[in-house]
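2024-03-11 09:14:02 DEBUG pipeline.ingest accepted 1 chain
2024-03-11 09:14:02 DEBUG pipeline.ingest length=516
2024-03-11 09:14:03 DEBUG pipeline.predict start
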Amino acid sequence: MSKTTFAQKIALIFLGVALTFLALECVLRFGGFVFHCRQEMMNKASFSDDEIRILCIGESTTALGDDNSYPAILKTVLNQKSGTERFKVINKGMVSKNTRDILDQLNDNLTRYRPHIVVAMIGVNDTPQTRGAFARQSWTEAFGQWRVCKLIFLLKQHLAHRLAGNKNVPTSVKNTFAAPGGLVPPDALGEQYYVKINQELRPLQSSMVQVSHWLQTPGIPDATKKELAGKAMFLQEKIRQDYKLIGIFHFINKDYPAAQKALEIALKLNPHDPSVLFEYARTLRAQKFFPQAFMILEQASAVVPQEPLVWMEMAETLSDMGKIPEARAIFLKTAGLNPPDQPWLYLQIGSWFKNNNFLDDAERALETSYQMNTWNLTTIDLLEEVYEALGRADKLKNLRAEAARQNKRANNYFPATAENYNEIVKAVHARGAVMVAMQYPLRPISTLKALFPSKEKIIFVENRTNFLAALQKGDFSRYFWDNFAGDFGHCSPLGNRMIAENLANVLWEKVPLARK
């Protein structure tokens, strides 16, 4: 038997790596194919002369979310405004694509869907290497089109943000205090999930009644009784979780009495669940039942004394009651808990201190938030105002220099972006459709407008004012799942609803077609 040479061993290693690369590429492409097919099924419907078709193009910020994506919510909002089902919104967002990719697919999409309105929210995935509309593809860019290369690039970006301290999705928000059974899935806020829960509740409750009846039957063996008791506990916990999710759904949709009713049922099944107590208190506070809300929060704090969200809500409730000194003391206590990697929390605390003229407190809280995440432009803006009010000239000078760098980094458009975006506008206008250029949340509309030599026949939509106002009242993680872009991230269902409602209002006001 011949011995394997060193060169052959090296060749085998390279062959193994190549086969692994190809296998992973096949898996990723199949996953993309499945996602594409699902998206097409959602978009597919017969066209009619009465309907108004809106084509939404973009990257993952457009594509992801299913029923909670901004295009899906836009359809619902517009049809509610019109009182009919004449609006059809087509989601052609593409994950991990840039403006050249979107441009390359545009004519096919315009031909297939014949839209009356095209909405673009694009550009965040572009790099200095992105091709312009008239540039040829290099071999390095062709290689970069492989899914594995894109995956490696995304992992590299994620690692870079982690090292930079961009950790804006607090665990305590995502899993509601990390309580047992406290996980709230992202689509729990969607209509589809709500319908599913209601469909499963009745059989669960029927089973619970049946199991309870069996438990009361005389003479059943101890082993059977033990098994039935375990089944009853499981059913009770499942029913409680469903009512909790129903309550959260109604709260997000601002039906506070319905939310209160559902959460009260959940509390009857377990009066000591801190996550349900917290959601119940928020529902009471939204209805201005401040003393009752504060009492419920005190109960929650007794169960989870180190949970900053509970203390934050207590402070906000005291503030609503006009008890400013007491609220300040609770906010200071919350900051004193030193929750790690939660810049949004210190941002919210600092914002309250600033608004209530506790500037020294605001300075400390906002500086902590800034140190955790130097990308967040909202923190920079607030900290600049505080430094100016306190006369911190040196700090103000340094911060403004850093803010200028961060603004340039966040709002910079590459030459290829401008070239591709303008070609997209031309293609849309050539088909007789209305062009809508929408800016990402928290970014200024002026930088987007500057891309176009001629701004005629383009409707611009800004999402900075509405998100800044929301962030003054609530934490970052309620509107974004992450912070991949530095100053914004992929939107939560609530964030996507804000985009959709804002866009719907602009379309209703500026596009005559929408009001007919």
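2024-03-11 09:14:41 DEBUG pipeline.report The chain has 23 helices and five strands.
2024-03-11 09:14:41 DEBUG pipeline.predict end
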